[in-house]
Amino acid sequence: MKHINSKKHPGGRQWHLALLFITIFTAGILSTTTAANDETPVAPNIVVKGNGNDIATVNNTPRIDHFTDFAHLEVKKERILNYTIENTGNATLQLTGPTFVEIKGLHPDDFVVTKQPAAAVEPGQTTTFEITFTPGASGDRNAMAGLLSNDPDQKGYVFRIKGTGYVIPEITNVSAVTADGLYGIGKTIRLKVDFNEQVKLTEVIPAQISLNAGATAKAQYAEGDKHSTIYFDYTVGEGESTTDLDYLNTDAFDVKGGILHSIWYFDAKGILTLPAPGADGSLSANSNIQIDGIAPSGYTVAFDQNEATIENAKAISFTITNEEANATCNWGISGLGADKITGSGDLKTLGAQITGIDVSAFDDGELTLSITLTDKAGNQGSAALAKLIKQPFATDIGEKNINHLEVYPSITTGMITVKADNIDNIIIYNVTGNMVYQKKTTHQPEETIDLSACENGIYLIQVRSTNDWEMKKIIKK
To answer: Where are the domains of the chain?
Structure first.
């Protein structure tokens, strides 16, 4: 058997190691004994078997059934395999060397010859040796087993051995990739879970981790398959809140029907127990993430003036009540005849007042204030509204006729006619001061208005020209 000289090389680095093994350990081989008759050689012949199979027949490729592949084994555990050396020649087989079977190669410390064979094997006889595999780390572990003898065809007998180490995956640490701080609705926090082993996550639906921010707070698997760190993303939902984000309990990691195992061995299922919340290695011990998923609510706003007049139109103010401390406000006042007025500010104290607002550019009529509050986490509340009438209308009704205003009929079921020297703007108010109708024109002498959709009651009609205004009262029945 010319195992080492086969043209089918074991391949790559292992083949070169095999040649090196032979070169180092073939010194001092016993000389071959041959009979006087050259046609009948007298010589030993070595055959090495694993599990009863000739190792040479697999062309130096490790196989479990030939005991050259030690299969999967947990790191630091031991697996012992036995081998047989058979002398099929007609002369005594002599093993040589400092030790008869030696281990060299990439990971020689993982394979130890724990029993050596006999030094001499008579024709037709056998001896045995054993190798103990103890993986020192996860992954494929490779080496070469070799022995020297007086077999003239293969003085150095070398074969590859391998095994695969693995570690039962366990969670060692949980932390946040996202920086410490306060996060509100819609913000995403990335968490990372560290294992003591590279893991494979076979999913049915995405794995998740239940968090202490509320019943709906879940961190969903994001990435990291086939690594020792996998990542989860948590997006803050409405109503979720906690002062120190952590997972719910030690069983909060849920693969949702999937399987998490060592990347090296499917049967090495992961132990998914998390460090106790708050303990070393937990999310809250490693990171300081605060969650506020509750938007400001219940706040109101009101103008401090009953109406905007010529005297106060440049100094209008409003007050916010029931607001959230340390929130910021954004507000806007809109009306006819001018662009919307906007502003913002930080509400350092409760009962905050915004003052000095100039609404003089707006046309007379209804002004609308809209305000929203945004808390420190970035959550925005719903708009609160307030109304204000610009220019009083309860004076001078019918006392002057600068514009020669006529409105008829004074009692109507719907249609009215408005006449004047020129009409630029018509505004109609109900008795509570709310504007119900407005129409702008350009120096028109007459307009027809349909009040059929208005409720029955008293209405005040204000008609404006370039510099003058007049008001009339009608009744809608």
So the answer is: 12-166, 171-292, 300-390, 406-476
> Is domain 406-476 in CATH 2.60.40.1930, yes or no?
yes
**CATH code at 300-390:** 2.60.40.10
The model scores a pTM over 0.85: no
pLDDT (tens digit, 9 = 90+) per residue, 241-299?
999 999 999 999 999 989 999 999 999 999 999 999 999 999 999 999 999 999 999 99
Tell me the per-residue pLDDT of 116-139, one tens digit each, with 9 for 90 and over. Answer: 999 999 999 999 999 999 999 999
Identity (one letter) of the amino acid at 229?
A: T
pLDDT digits (tens, 9 = 90+) for 348-358: 666 788 899 99
In sequence order, the 6+-apart residues with CB closer than 8 A to the CB of 13 are 106
pLDDT at residue 236 in the model: 98
CATH architecture of the domain 12-166 equals: Sandwich (2.60)
| Gap between the Cα atoms of 255 and 271, Å rounded | 11
Residue 356 backbone zone (phi > 0: left; psi -120 to 50: alpha; other: beta): left
